[in-house]
Design goal:
Helix content: 40-55%
Largest sheet: 5 strands, mixed
Strand content: 5-15%
Order of helices and strands: HEHEEEHHEHHEEHEEEEHEHHHHHH
Structural class: alpha+beta
Distance between the termini: 19 Å
Length: 365
């Protein structure tokens, strides 16, 4: 319905709001920081009657630029989404475009403040800790460029190991250890044993065990059962597929990551992702602000900004930051008995969405 280009050019009549979000809004931007653009566009009410639902989001490939439909914004606000809630409290110097409908939404922004918002802020903060740990693992355990091979997930019990004299029976051996070439073998399924196969060696006449990423079972002539039998093969296909996904995610992260952000971790100066943990504390402080001031904290200044920047620059140990997070979380729990409603009034939010849509449609006549 709307192109990213027309929204960014402010040519689309549907554009309701545009701002620079992320670190530039929080006050934590550095020279290497990306510029995140967030915006809102209107959709005519009748568009939702069509069989093909209108788009709810227009974004670039990296999601550095994201425009949401007004309906999607209200939907996310009703779910107490921290990232969308901050659009209603954006510092004036970050706003690049606004409209009467956006001003009306901002006037009603306290409709979207509840104790549920605090819980989602705390939940997002915890997710940042998990993310920091996961990516830190990637930093400390770089992956090879070669994708995981199926053969890496194969184990074999050679025929002579099935019942060796004086040794433990049936001990699987990793295929790379044996250096057997599975292109010289056929397999037949081992009954009642998931991922288990009988392995037969045919040498140059073989069609191979794997064909087009699939394991191909053969009908083995009865006279070959004993003469060609080489052992038992076990292929953990599920683990191989998961390893492929992990490998792909790792290299996407490597290609798209901000090199400066990871320099300290790779050089051994830090053992955690400083940016993720900075956002952990930012989200927790913002959640606490909802309880004490009735609104999230977007722009950080003074001591709080210095604290975030010190975390960003790796001036704390991981355990010290975890202790800060625990302290803020406990303060939030103590303040949870406030006059804030437990959740957002969905019916009131729905009425506001209809009111704003009608108001925008009237301006298009």
């Amino acid at each position: 319905m709307y192109s990213l280009e027309s929204l960014l050019a402010h040519d689309a009549p549907a554009l309701l709001f545009e701002c620079i979000g992320g670190s530039h809004a929080y006050g934590t931007a550095t020279a290497e920081s990306d510029r995140d653009i967030r915006g809102i566009f209107a959709v005519p009410g009748h568009a939702y009657m069509a069989l093909n639902a209108p788009t709810n989001q227009v974004a670039d490939a990296r999601n550095d630029i994201v425009f949401y439909s007004l309906r999607r914004v209200v939907e996310l606000l009703t779910g107490a989404n921290p990232n969308v809630l901050e659009l209603l409290f954006m510092p004036a110097d970050c706003v690049r475009w606004t409209s009467p409908e956006m001003q009306a939404l901002v006037e009603h922004r306290h409709l979207f403040i509840s104790r549920q918002c605090v819980q989602t802020h705390l939940g997002y903060a915890i997710s940042q800790i998990k993310k920091a740990r996961g990516q830190n693992k990637w930093v400390n355990q770089p992956r090879a460029e070669r994708p995981p091979a199926k053969e890496d997930f194969c184990h074999i019990v050679p025929r002579e190991h099935l019942l060796p004299a004086g040794q433990p029976a049936c001990r699987p051996v990793p295929l790379p250890t044996l250096q057997w070439n599975l292109a010289e073998y056929h397999v037949s399924r081992l009954e009642h044993a998931r991922d288990g196969y009988r392995l037969y060696r045919y040498g140059a006449q073989a069609r191979g065990v794997f064909r087009e990423d699939m394991i191909a079972c053969e009908s083995i002539p009865l006279e070959h059962e004993s003469s060609h039998f080489s052992g038992l093969l076990f292929f953990n296909e599920q683990a191989w597929k998961q390893a492929l996904v992990d490998h792909q995610n790792y290299w996407i992260w490597r290609r798209e990551r901000n090199e400066e952000r990871w320099r300290q971790q790779e050089s051994g100066e830090l053992d955690y992702d400083a940016k993720n943990l900075m956002h952990t504390i930012r989200l927790l402080l913002s959640g606490e602000s909802i309880l004490t001031r009735g609104e999230p904290m977007i722009r950080f200044e003074g001591e709080r900004l210095q604290l975030l920047m010190d975390i960003r620059h790796g001036r704390f140990q991981y355990d010290e930051i975890m202790a800060m997070a625990q302290d803020i979380s406990e303060r939030c729990e103590k303040h949870m008995n406030t006059d804030l409603p437990p959740a957002i009034d969905a019916l009131a939010a729905d009425r506001l969405l209809q009111q704003l849509t009608t108001q925008w449609e009237a301006r298009q006549v």
